[in-house]
Amino acid sequence: MFRSRKRAIGIAVMAILALVLAACSSTGGKRAAEAAAQGGTSVAAGHANTPHYTIAMITHAAPGDTFWDIIRAGATAAAAKDNITLKYSSDPDPTKQAQLITDAINSKVNGIAVTDPAPAAICPTVKAARAAGIPVVMFNAGVNNWQQCGGLSFFGQDETIAGLAAGKRLASEGAKNVLCVLQAQGQVQLEAWCAGVKAGLGSEGTMSKLYVNGEDNSAMLSSMTAELTRNKSIDAVITLGAPVALVAIQAIAAAHSTTKLYTFDTNAAEIAKIKSGAVQWAVDQQPYLQGYLSVDSLWLYLTNGDVLGGGVTVLTGPAFIDASNVAQVAAYAARGTR
Amino acid sequence: MTATAEAPVTPPPIRDERFGRKSRMARLLARPEAGAVAGAIVIYVFFFIVAPPFRNASSFSSVLYVTSTYGLMVTPIALLMIGGEFDLSAGVAVTSSALCASLFSYEFTTNAWVGVLVALALSLLIGFLNGWIVVKTGIPSFLVTLGTFFVLQGLNIALTQTITNQVASPDISTLQGFSSARVVFSGSFTIGGVNIRTSVIYWLVFVAIATWILLRTRIGNWIFSAGGSPVSARAVGVPVGRVKIGLFMAVGLMAWFTGMHTLFLFNTIQTSQGVGNEFVYIIAAVVGGCLLTGGYGSAVGAAIGALIFGMVNQGIVYAGWNPDWFQTFVGLLLLGAILLNTFIRRRAEAAA
Predict the structure, then answer these.
(1) pTM here?
(2) Which terminus of chain A has fewer Cβ atoms in its 10 Å neighbourhood, N or C?
């Protein structure tokens, strides 16, 4: 019994190994990606000979949100160029994010880059960092509060301006009933986007909101299908994140809806969908730039005392990615920098 | 004592309440799923009235779909709970399995089916480890699987980030074997103009298999006794440890199946997915009549529990209620379903 079971396991392992060796795919996969990427996969810009610094980047990224991959890619590229060790951490809960900032202060890093989705929790720790003599730049979230908090610079887009731009463009393209899909409840920047879209539409159209569970693709698909089935007058769906847009494509098909699809933020898979026409356009806040500039500006401050922005927000968006420029952007997106 | 030719005297019928046949209604109400059925009917009628789109066949197919994505996991979780254990790692285990299949076949550029098989092995291993630790140490499964929940969640994020520098798995839709795997795990078909996803069929089949195991096989008896009274079960020779490890591995098997469904439907998987679903599975099983203390419940009841959850989820959207209140509505309707369930069971027990 024991012996035969051992033998059975052995045979199973051998069979799996044989399968692995025999069953290589001749299409797709990493091999194809590597073949396509011949000739440079990153934005490299030499290497500085300035003193070595450690910079902490602390964001409110939810684990699993592809948007933050691009921010991190930008920060990593700048750190590599600037002879900097980058310590990245994140927590979507503001009080835990504040704790991470305090940890960075206690470990005496040379500079801190933070996002500020909840000023009440984040601001005091930013002030504490400045009091401890650590330069702080802010990016992505907190555009209205960063000066009071004591940040040196801010890199990001104004969510309301971005929402307005999207709403105005939707109105000019003839959208009448817009559905704004939020993948989380209680997040300031998501609400600001939807509110901006509504304001941008003005009297040209109406906007309704739908909350979906961003942590469950199947539930997202079903909720969006249900809403599109219920409200047949919807002629434009705007999602607030690339992964949601990808699911929305399936929901539109499942509901036999003729609505057009638009989105905030991008990732490589979604840019391919703009190319194929399944997504009309995306509002891009250039997250790579936010990550890169945050680290690079701290390096300039540490090595040359420079401060970027002159006390006003350095806007990285909104930029639109649509049929006219998607071919160029797609190549950058494939390597994870757009 | 001589043989007589007299006809044996037929004893007068004795009415002993222990052998007495209860009325058909009382017997139906005493079944574990009775309360859930009543709750499901109430909620169905409710949304039928308040949400016009809910009445369409295609809308109900959408309800069944979301139900099946939960139901596939609720079925083994119900068996596990009848067997007296919990699995809090079940939600993220689905994502772990999908990530494993996706990353393995992408990184080694293999046929998609190779990744599918590797993920199956991993999922069964996770289930085995959960069960083995619970059985060997005697630590409550609530704590053990809470540990595995965090371990798996961390591994999902850390390994994906290390291997791909991203927090989502790469798109594997161009791999060989992807399209055939999609047909198997995430297909759909159309009957009378209504599109139905095959996951609904799989779910019903698995519920039927689970019911058969519970009610018609020796293993089913072992599961009930392992959960109801492990000490006396062990005393009469039930291999309680092996039953429990087997149940955890059944959860692993279905986590694999659900993970494959999600992976081949959406091409890529985000590392954070699945967190929170472990409670949906347990809630659905409890709404369906499984006791938190083990030893009591049914697979059909758990399936109806999942259906209640699916109907509430979709019905609120179809009704077009203010989305800010969505989760409050979900909570209130589920609470109502559980109260109704408890009320009916108490009535049935009192009547019996």
Answers:
(1) 0.82
(2) N
